[in-house]
Amino acid sequence: MIQIIFLLSLFLSISNASVQDFCVADIKGSDTPSGYPCKPASTVTSDDFAFEGLIAPGNITNIINAAVTPAFVAQFPAVNGLGLSAARLDLGPAGVIPLHTHPGASELLVVTQGHITAGFVSSANTVYIKTLKKGELMVFPQGLLHFQATAGKRNAVAFAVFSSASPGLQILDFALFASNFSTPLITKTTFLDPVLVKKLKSILGGSG
Ligand SMILES: *[C@@H]1O[C@H](CO)[C@@H](O)[C@H](O)[C@H]1NC(C)=O
Ligand SMILES: *[C@@H]1O[C@H](CO)[C@@H](O)[C@H](O)[C@H]1NC(C)=O
Q: Domain Cupin type-1 spans what residues (predicted)?
C-alpha cells in the first residue's frame, strides 16, 4: 500500500513538473541580464534551432584582414537562455583579431583551417600564447584580453564557442582609437605618446 502511494505521488509530481525546455528569443523584445522574452512555443519550428550564418566566410577585405561572424543570441535567437553561443573567425595571410575581451563569456576556439597564433593575458599579467593547427582547441577565460592572428602565409579559419548567449566584444584598440575618448585623456590614462594616439585615431576613425 505504501509503495502504491509512493508511486502515485511520484507519478503526480512528474506529470506536474513543467520544465521549460527552451526560450527562443523574441528579439523584437529587449535583452536583459536573463535574456530576451520567449517567442510563443507554438510558433517555434525546427528552423529556429539551426543557423546557416556561419557557412559563408566573412569579408576579410579590411584593416585587420580578418572577420568575426557572430552567432550570438541577436543572430541565432535559439541560444537565448542556454548560456552558449558561437562565432566564425576568418583570417587572411596578414589577419589579426586585435586584443579584445568578451566581458560576459569564456571562449573555446577550434581551428578548422590553417594555423593560428593565439594568446591571452591573465589578471596576474602572465602571457599565455600557443600556435594552433587544424583540430586544436584553446580556451580563453572570461573577461581576459586575448587575440588571434594568422601564423604562416595561408588563410586560417576557426570557430569559437562562448559560455554565454551574449558574450559581448570589446576590442582594445577600437575602444581607444575608434571612439570619442579625448586624446589628452588617452595620453594621461595609457601613457601613450599623443602623436601615436592621433595617428591611430586617424587610421581607426576616432575623434576628440
Ligand atoms: C568586402 O568588403 C570590401 C570593403 O568594404 C568591399 O569593397 C567588397 O565589396 C566586399 N566584398 C564582398 C564580397 O562583399
Ligand atoms: C561620446 O559620444 C557620445 C555619443 O555621441 C556622447 O554621449 C558622449 O558624451 C561622448 N563622450 C565624450 C567624452 O565626449
A: 52-198
- Ligand 2 atom closest to residue 208's alpha carbon, by position in its atom list: 14
Residue 115 labelled as part of a binding site = no
Reading phi first (left if > 0) and then psi (alpha if -120 to 50, else beta), residue 183 is in alpha
Q: Output b/e per residue, 122-149; b: 16+ Cβ within 10 A.
A: eeeeeeeeeebeeebebebebbebbbbb
What ranges do the domains of the chain cover?
63-168, 175-204
Q: Is the domain defined by 63-168 classed in CATH 2.40.10.10?
A: no
List the residue whose alpha carbon is closest to atom 4 of ligand 2: 180
Going from the Cα of 146 to the center of ligand 2, the distance in angstroms, rounded, reads: 27
pTM equals 0.88
Nearest alpha carbon, ligand 2 atom 11: 180
Alpha carbon 198 to its chain centroid, in Å, reads: 29
Residue 61 Cβ contacting ligand 1 at under 6 Å: yes
